Amino acid sequence: MTPNPSTKQETFWTGDFGRHYTDRNSRHLEEWNQFYLDNWGHTKLAMNERFLGHLDREARILEVGCNTGMQLMGLQENGFQHLYGVDIQPYAVEKAKEFTQHVNIVQGSGLDLPFKDGFFDVVGTNGVLIHISPDDLPRVMAEMVRCSKRYIWGFEYYTPEITTIKYRDNVGYAWKGDYARLFLEQLPGQLRLVQQEFFPYVNPAELGNTDCMYLLEKVGA
Ligand SMILES: C[S@@+](CC[C@H](N)C(=O)[O-])C[C@H]1O[C@@H](n2cnc3c(N)ncnc32)[C@H](O)[C@@H]1O
Fold first, then answer.
1. CATH number, domain with residue 132
2. Is the per-residue pLDDT at 204 higher than 50?
3. Model pTM?
4. In a domain, 3, yes or no
5. pLDDT tens figures, 155-168
6. Does 10 contact ligand 1 (Cβ within 6 A)?
7. Pocket test for ligand 1, best of 17, 87, 123 (most atoms within 8 A of CB)
8. Is the pLDDT of residue 80 over 90?
9. How many structural domains are present in the chain?
10. What is the pLDDT of residue 195?
11. What DSSP line would sit under 2-55, residue for residue?
12. Does residue 67 contact residue 89 with C-beta atoms inside 8 Å?
């Protein structure tokens, strides 16, 4: 697998930083759920249900930036069976293949998704758009919309306007913003907002910060 990073951020994730992140990322569902409870006061399984609970469990779902596959394992726990993950990092892809069962994991970039138009019912990200440079967001968002037949789903750090933040002392690798609004602005007339919910942190170390989960639907889908 050749990573072939095309941006400074992709180089960062395919290098040592990404590898260390991957090694820190839990493979245990209980720990992962506890992480969500500690940070937001809800399990991720409960958050997922609030947004995807109405979907047929046969829905085909892609996670862009899946790392070790924790989110996909969570979706499996929610009952979904047709799950796909893509990540720029070969090391994370290797680990995701090791940790998950019956999940399709491939190496690739959100800038150029290796899937056909409309192949998925849902294309989503979890803490990934925040690591895409604002200059590259239109391309990643367009790719996600291209590959989705119906829904775009996300959970990302929220601020009303795009703001640069430090990420573990690194500058130029993380932002926060209103990603649902940016999707709507980048692809005018193509999407509508179905649901949006703010999840303020309850973890005392993160008080004042908020994440946002959103579900967008392709118009006419
Ligand atoms: C903060 S982690 C989030 C991992 C996972 N979504 C989760 O919630 O546990 C960001 C992930 O996105 C991946 N990534 C970053 N830029 C990417 C890109 N352009 N295309 C695909 N994956 C990317 C990184 O390698 C990393 O695994």
1. 3.40.50.150
2. yes
3. 0.97
4. no
5. 999 999 999 998 88
6. yes
7. 87
8. yes
9. 1
10. 98
11. -----SHHHHHHHSHHHHHHHHHS---HHHHHHHHHHHHSS-HHHHHHHHHTTS
12. yes
